[in-house]
Design goal:
With about 100 residues, the protein is mainly alpha-helical. Helices cover about 50% and strands about 10% of the residues. Helix 2 packs across helix 3.
Length: about 100
């Protein structure tokens, strides 16, 4: 193995038996697809929220990456949205209980 091949291998290129691409740090570093799966959103929704600055993200050159723990914190801090039907049902249950 020459020096160029060794450097390329360390950087994630030219790996045999697996795709080259984004490195993962103990599953903490996510791409758009993984972030979408983690959040339960479509990839398009993740991209739009990222572009608008609504999701915590980082740039690795041209790539956008997400840290799992930052997304988990973001989810925990989001307000809970209750549908009108659920709110009415909850109000009726409270009235019936008093």
């Amino acid at each position: 193995m020459n020096a160029a091949t060794a450097t390329a291998t360390r950087r994630g290129h030219l790996r045999k038996g697996g795709p080259s691409g984004q490195r993962k740090i103990n599953g903490e570093l996510l791409g758009v697809r993984e972030a979408a799966e983690f959040l339960g959103f479509s990839e398009g929704a993740v991209r739009i929220r990222t572009k608008r600055g609504l999701l915590p993200h980082r740039r690795d050159g041209r790539r956008i990456v997400y840290l799992r723990r930052e997304l988990a914190t973001w989810v925990a801090r989001r307000p809970v949205v209750v549908s009108v039907a659920a709110a009415l049902e909850n109000a009726q249950l409270q009235e019936a209980g008093t």
